[in-house]
Request: fold
Amino acid sequence: MAIISVNENENTVPVYRRYWGTQARYAMTYVLITLCALLLLNIYSTRVSQRLFHQAKKTAMIEKCLIAASDIRELEVISTTTVTDAVAQLASLKVISTTTDGMAPLDSTKVSRLIVTDQAGVIIYDSYGPNAGRYAMLPEVVQALSTDAHARFGNEVFTWRYHDGTMQSHAAVPVVAYGTIVGCVYMMETDTALGGLIQSLQRTLLQITLILEVTLILFSLAFSNTFSRRIRQIMASMRIIQQGDYTHKVSLSGHDELTFLGDEFNDLTERLQTSEQKRRRFVSDASHELKTPLASIKLLTDSILQNDMDMDTVREFVSDIGNEADRLNRTTGKLLSLTRVDGQLTEECEIIYMSPTIERVVRMLSVIAAENGITIETDLLEDSPVLFEDDLYQVAFNLVENGIKYNTPGGKLTVTLRRNEDTAELIVADTGVGIPADMLSHIFERFYRVDKARSRATGGSGLGLAIVRAIIQRNRGEISVTSEVGRGTTFTVSFPVFDTEVDAT
Amino acid sequence: MKKLFAALLVFATLAVFSACRYSGMQDPVSFYYPRREIAYGNADGVIGTETREAAGHKDDLRYLLAVYLQGPLDETLYSPFPAGCRLLSVSTAGDTIAITLDSRFASLHDLDLSIACASLAKTCLTLSGAQSVHIESTPAENDSANAVNIILSRNSVLLEEAVVTVPVGDPTE
Reply:
């Protein structure tokens, strides 16, 4: 986990002091999972191998005991002498590896002990020494001689213990003659060869496990380091951008989620950069637009105060001050309007027919048009249901108002509604001064004026078309303009049509 | 939470110490009985032990044997003696303890007799410090069983010849 330290007194930019938290967590998780898996594999392998050895040893030992028991059962008299002879015969045939004196094993890696008891567990023969007459209360012997409903003729018993490279096996079988238990054969082997094999197997498995684990630790460290390094790159870029360098880009190789995150981050940065540029330009333009009337007001008031003027001149100056104040008021009003619509998509629309709203706009502006000697013609037959009434009113008002302002005396303004397959079109065409081709691409920018002197004279703020475009974008529409200098300008606005039942009023 | 845990830990520790002090016996003695479940790899093989309180009778072998014949308190052990088996006499001659049991003991035979004798002998040798035990029992007149007349020394019982190690695999297979 990266630790973020913020010192508010000195610097408000977060300082990332440590980044290795995520790296360590990933590495540790990976190592722990693999360690558990390897340990389980190790234990399982060891258990399986021991079980295999156990099974093999059990079969061999029980078989030897059964052979000895079979020979003893054939004896006419079971005594120390007769049993000793029988065991010697078995040893000579190498069925069992023991010595009659019990002191020296034949095979140094496989020491055997053979005990034969009677049915009471009293020792008749012991290859280890003169133990005849002792009670062999060994668990295997007792188990072999025990009888119950399930084991009427005793039990075949095998146990083994493995410790430190030595495997000790014990087996006991009852000697059954004529349906009666007459004794027990017990055998013990200490096998260092097989024990060594098991020990070697365990050691090898452990070594493989350790090597694998070390490899995995190194691999996980490298992997987590690579992972966290890319995160560090992103965080470093964030710091740079926080400090104001919006041109900085994150450069991550690969095709994974982090690369995608880096790309998204770069997109975000670009948008931030664009937004920041717009904001600066807007502030600059707005300041300029607000400053101009204020400067005029200041100049006029200074003139009134500093010069002796007649009353008519003063009245004229005060009137100019009032006009500048009106312009200031209009500009701030439009700025507020632009701020409200800017960048917001319409979520809920009241769907209306267009023509009543257009007619209302034309009615509203017909007086101004008449004052300027401009004729307004309307062709609103192909009506369609479109968007929210207030938005349509604002768009139509600004376009018709512009058509009147920038028209020539005696000119004409035509307002037309047209229907395409999926869109409705509002066309506002004037016969005015027109716009030069190189300025057409700028007319929707805020505070942009084609003819600044004329615009100010007509009370234009340079925000009308910017507001129109913002409203149209908000309503998923489009606007286009064609113009010819000296012949006029045509604005074409298209909106998506909502073919549904609406209140025509 | 930590305080609660600490309090519980202290309480548990005190409880354990109290239990230990409470279980302290006066004159503890060891009685040997066969195990119900045969254990492999133990030093004492098929015969287990339980500690009982002599309560002032530590040197009273007759009393201790009478208690012993009543059977174990530990449920993992069982009494190898026939129900109602009684001690008739106990005497010490030199390093040998002579024990006479009633006719019920003589009804035991083969492995059961061996286990009973081994358990009794081990108990007597541990209690008294003698070197051998002479066990006698005469069957009832109408019983066809043989009389018991066995002498067991400290070396008479072979319990476990192997070094105690960790058992591997299923020992009952």
